[in-house]
Amino acid sequence: MALFTVDSNNTFGKSVQEAGTYNVKVLDSSQYTSAKSSGNEMLVLDYEVLDGNYAGGRIMYDNFVWNPDNIELSEKRFNTLLVSANVPDGTAINSVQDILRGIIGKTLNINVEWKQSDYNQKWNLNVKGYDKVDKEGSKPNGAQRPIDGQSQSTSHSNNNDQFKSADPFASKGNRPLDISDDDLPF
C-alpha cells in the first residue's frame, strides 16, 4: 500500500500576493474560540481562493466577535457574513458554534487589503468586506504586500471603486449563487 499519492494541488507555497476581491470557500480549519481581550465568543475563519491566478491560495484569520454588550452590531456583522454566503432570510441562528458548523464549505466573495499587524509589524491580508460570489471571478487589484517599515501604497490603479465607500460591508447587489443543501444548521 502506498504511503500517499503525489498531488500538485496539495503543496506549500500557494499564497495570495495581491489585495483585491476573491471568490473563496470557508475552510474546515476555521475555529470557534474566545476573544483574548474580552472573553467573548469568536469565530476565526480561514478561506481558500477558488479561481484566478491565486486559486488554492489561503487567506487566514478573519475574526468575528459576538459582543453581548452590543447585540445590534454583532447581528449586523454576522448577518453580513451569512447573507454573503447565501444563507436564506428567516434562518434561525441558535449559537455562534452553529454558525461555524454551517459556514464551513460555503462560498462567498471577500474584499481584502494589506494591514500591518500590531503584534509583529508584518503585513497581512485583512478582510474588509463581504459579498456573494462574483460570477466574473476573483479580481486582484495589483496592491502587493508592502515592505516592512513602509506604508501601504495606494497609487495602484484598479476597477474596484465600489469598495471605497464609507461602509466596508456595503453590498454590490444580489447575484444568484448555487449552493447545495445538506444537513448543516442552515
What does this entry look like structurally?
- By secondary structure, the protein is of the alpha+beta class.
- 12% of the residues lie in helices and 30% in strands.
- The protein contains two helices and seven strands.
- It has helices at residues 71-84, 96-103, and strands at residues 18-26, 31-34, 41-49, 58-65, 107-116, 123-131, 139-144.
- Strands 1, 2, 3, 4, 5, 6 and 7 form a seven-stranded antiparallel sheet that branches.
- Strand 2 (31-34) and strand 3 form a beta hairpin.
- The longest helix is centred in the middle third of the chain and has 14 residues, at 71-84.
- The protein is globular.
- The termini are far apart.
Task: Describe the structure using short key phrases.
single chain; 186 residues; alpha+beta; 7-stranded antiparallel beta sheet; 2 helices; 30% strand
Succession of helices and strands: EEEEHHEEE
Apparent shape: globular
The oligomeric status of these chains comes to: single chain
Computed structural class: alpha+beta
Alpha carbon gyration radius: 17 Å
Strand content: 25-35%
